[in-house]
């Protein structure tokens, strides 16, 4: 399967057209390049380059009221393709879908996405609605999806 690093216009269009109420939680699954080349030509690990991206992205997140909810270092999956191993997993919560899309359009933010693109070998970004307090019961309602 081809790697997935940056969203394409069709993917962004589908997300933008999704009816959305309330906060957006974005699950990020990231696999880094072992060695990466920064936009300025410097060679370093993908993890180190992604750390630069994260530091540069933080003010853009904060200015839109977004925050990191949790981050973890995954181990090989118990259920799922064994080849789909991730170096990092985290969830960022945005106050709304509009806040997330606004950040993606920001010319200053777009400048730093080259760091992310160079660092990442493969990724998944999965938009989510927060579940109700009783997440098991919420599953019956489609996990809180707005219809």
3D architecture notes:
There is one protein chain. This protein is α+β, with helices and mostly antiparallel strands and 147 residues long. The chain has a single domain (20-130), classed as Alpha-Beta Plaits. It is built from five helices and six strands, in the order H-E-E-E-H-E-E-H-H-E-H. The protein has helices at 9-16, 46-62, 97-105, 107-119, 135-140, and strands at 24-32, 36-37, 43-44, 67-72, 88-94, 120-128. The relative contact order is 0.26.
Short description:
By secondary structure, the chain is α+β, with helices and mostly antiparallel strands. Helix content is 36%, strand content 24%. It has one domain (20-130): Alpha-Beta Plaits (2-Layer Sandwich), CATH 3.30.70.100.
Give me the CATH architecture, please: 2-Layer Sandwich
Counted beta strands? 6
Kindly report how far apart the N and C termini lie. Answer: 31 Å
The residue fraction in helices comes out at 25-40%
Q: How many individual helices?
A: 5
CATH topology: Alpha-Beta Plaits
Helix-strand makeup class: alpha+beta
Reading off the top of the CATH hierarchy, the class is best stated as Alpha Beta
Strand content: 15-25%
Order of helices and strands: HEEEHEEHHEH
How many domain units? 1
Q: Which oligomerization state do the chains in this entry correspond to?
A: single chain
Rg from Cα:
16 Å
Sheet with most strands: 4 strands, antiparallel
Low-confidence stretches at least 5 residues in length (pLDDT < 50)? Answer: none
Strands of the largest sheet, in order across it? 4-5-1-6
Global mean pLDDT: 90
